[in-house]
Write a structure and sequence with these properties.
heterodimer; A: alpha+beta; 3 domains; 17 helices; 34% helix; B: 135 residues; 4-stranded antiparallel beta sheet; 5 helices; 21% helix
């Protein structure tokens, strides 16, 4: 893809599954973008998706993607020649691709190329992997068999290589499972800068170190990869880098129309963080700095599947309004292990709130809490965490202190237990406090229901054992597939159905014919696999 | 050396987030050249004292000199992790802002030389005795 103005413009149109659904559309309407990237996955999203998939085999992916694509996003991608790169495929990239293919088909984008990146799901092999000694916890110790047996999902964080190769095969849209957030951006750069093309020409494996894909004349490919990774890290949480969640919130104009970020990324690994002209928010050194340190560990060794990133010497400079230049990232060869995101079901939990009014709001709240705890004391395994919201529960020692009584206090109880019934009993014990506790207690809602709790377990797995793959599902409808096998069906059946659906007077018959035709236009089958 | 106590928020801004049971707080000097003052004020011991009730594990403070910042890693900070914590703020997102409200002890002469405003300075950690600003 030809870069615009010497740089590649990559947008980060969302920070998690739950972010503003239509943000990608606003972004594309407001700016020209080469690659639109979207990270939909958090620590437990994969497990939630597995639960969904168990109930319905066409689910288990981030359906928000479909909503904005259907609302005009897909047409915009085509019109503006923007590639979409996202891990929305989650626990079921195949089903995600089928849904998007179906939409492309319905909208008449018949040559839309969709690639899926798979291979991250190691759950079916996890017990074997553990027995073979290639699975460890984060400190490198072996994992208890009892733990691997109860895991309900396990996904290795895959790097940028497969994303790049999918784009190199001509994909307009890349849908992956658990590809690391920043790798979506790095993969796009590998394609834009021709590294992916090199790797195909040199027949390098899809999961080989991407520094080996670099052009011969490049002296420090690891630093370039580090710079691209940093740019990716900065935009992967969407508007958190353009003024969202910022300490400077009071100085930022128009958080209502907060713009999502665009990274203008250069061949040498440097980048400029900006946002669409006219959008709200502020791209300042301070806001970018906050995001640079967001959810990282040792700043000299930030592990990704592609590179170990060192940001200690990175400089941030404001070079214009809403333009911050980022330079100085350094890289070391990628780690031997891939991080694994896994989860198991760990009991039940729920929460409830009540509002306690003054006078003596705090004393009343404490009494209310005492009554509830005493009534539930017989439930040995129920853990109850009480918070008096508004009294300083978020404050550390030495922080803002409660000076006197408050006009009102909100009590929040959050509970957990291995037994569902304990949590149910708690749920039934909150509302009665309104009639049986101190005066004026209010604000109860429906009985809170027990929800199953997922415990996140990060693990490490030897990367040689995880083989990522790119698959290109063919845009082939059921009708096309059948016609290929039986050409006579076209005139004998399909054309007749078409006539009935258009001209039939009996409304029921007409409707049935239309429905059958619609069913025949569903995409089927999987095509080329490499 | 004569020291003063300043709310951390005067010197720095911050953002916090989670990874498993770990909370990290990125603390950035409001002016890059205030970094030495920030380093004086924020230590693992200072964080451990402030968060003694919430954080049960090790605390490590890393320097990010390029942008004049510290990255503070606090282990066992979320009752087992963001998905199982019973706190309203299960993911430690408020901890960065909350940390800024706590006072840090810094060298008065250094702070003055680097132009750190001392309007809110006090002689003790509770902030009860304000120090008059020199004209």
């Amino acid at each position: 893809m030809p870069a615009r103005g010497g740089v590649t413009r990559i947008a980060g149109a969302g920070g998690f599954w739950g972010d503003q659904v239509m943000a990608p559309i606003t972004l594309m309407e407001g700016a020209d973008i080469d690659y639109l990237t979207m990270d939909y996955l958090s620590e437990v999203t994969m497990s939630i998706m597995h639960k969904q998939k168990a109930r319905d085999k066409t689910s288990g992916w981030a359906t928000d993607l479909f909503d904005w694509l259907e609302a005009g996003g897909l047409e915009l991608l085509k019109k503006k020649n923007t590639k979409l790169v996202t891990n929305a495929g989650g626990a079921n990239p195949g089903a995600c691709a089928e849904a998007v293919l179906g939409l492309a088909c319905a909208l008449g984008w018949v040559d839309c190329q969709i690639a899926i990146v798979v291979g991250d799901d190691i759950h079916p092999r996890i017990e074997h992997m553990n027995a073979d000694g290639i699975l460890t916890d984060l400190s490198g110790k072996s994992v208890d068999e009892a733990l691997t047996a109860k895991l309900i999902s396990a996904h290795a964080y895959i790097g940028a290589g497969p994303i790049a190769r999918a784009l190199e095969q001509g994909a307009d849209i890349v849908l992956s499972g658990r590809v690391a957030d920043a790798s979506l951006i790095v993969g796009s750069m590998l394609h834009a800068e021709g590294w992916a093309k090199n790797s195909v020409a040199a027949e390098l494996p899809i999961c080989s170190p991407i520094e080996s894909w670099a052009p011969m004349e490049l002296h420090h490919p690891l630093d370039v990869i580090a710079g691209w990774t940093l740019a990716g890290h900065l935009i992967e949480c969407g508007a958190q880098v353009t003024g969202g969640n910022a300490d400077s919130w009071a100085d930022i104009t128009d958080l209502v129309n907060l713009g999502y970020p665009i990274a203008e990324i250069a061949t040498d690994g440097s980048s400029v963080i900006t946002k669409p002209e006219g959008s709200g928010g502020a791209v300042t050194r301070a806001n970018v700095a906050e995001q640079m340190l967001y959810e990282i560990g040792d700043p000299a060794s930030y592990f990704t599947p592609d590179v170990i990133l060192d940001i200690t010497a990175v400089s941030l400079d404001e070079i214009g309004t809403d333009r911050v230049a980022v330079a100085g990232a350094r890289g070391r060869p990628r780690p031997d292990n891939l991080k694994v995101s896994s989860c198991f079901l760990d009991g039940w939990f729920t929460s409830a709130t009540l509002l306690v009014p003054g006078p003596q709001a705090i004393a009343k709240a404490k009494a209310t809490d005492y009554i509830l705890l005493s009534r539930l004391a017989r439930l040995d395994e129920l853990v109850i965490h009480t918070e008096f919201l508004g009294t300083g529960i978020t404050m550390p020692k030495g922080g803002i202190e409660l000076q006197e009584d408050l006009p009102e206090v909100m009590i929040r109880w959050s509970v957990k237990s291995p037994n569902r019934t304990d949590v149910e009993i708690f749920g039934k014990s909150v509302a009665p406090l309104v009639l049986t506790g101190p005066a004026g207690v209010c604000g109860y809602s429906a009985r809170p229901r027990p929800r199953s709790q997922l415990r996140f377990v990060p693990l490490l797995v030897s990367r040689e054992t995880v083989e990522a793959k790119v698959e290109i599902p063919m845009l082939r409808t059921l009708r096309k597939a059948l016609t290929e096998r039986r050409p006579d069906l076209e005139t004998r059946v399909f054309n007749r159905l078409q006539r009935i659906s258009e001209n039939e007077n009996r409304i029921i018959t007409k409707r049935i014919a239309s429905r059958v035709l619609r069913g025949l236009e569903r995409p089927v089958g999987r095509g080329k696999v490499n | 050396m004569s020291t003063v106590w300043l709310p951390l928020g005067v010197i720095a801004h911050a953002r916090s987030g989670d990874k498993g049971d770990i909370v990290n707080i990125g603390i950035i000097a409001r002016e890059r050249h205030w970094f030495p003052v920030l380093k004086q004020g924020v230590t693992s011991g200072w964080l451990a004292e402030a968060w003694e009730e919430q954080v049960l594990g090790r605390i490590k403070v890393y320097e990010v000199p390029g942008i004049g910042a510290l990255n503070c890693i606090m282990e066992k900070a979320l009752q087992g992790g963001g998905t199982v914590s019973l706190r309203t703020d299960a993911q430690g997102k408020s901890m960065g802002q909350a940390t800024l409200t706590v006072r840090v002890e810094v060298d008065r002469a250094l702070a003055e030389r680097l132009g750190v405003p001392l309007d809110e300075a006090s002689q003790d950690r509770r902030g009860t005795i304000p120090i008059p600003v020199l004209a």
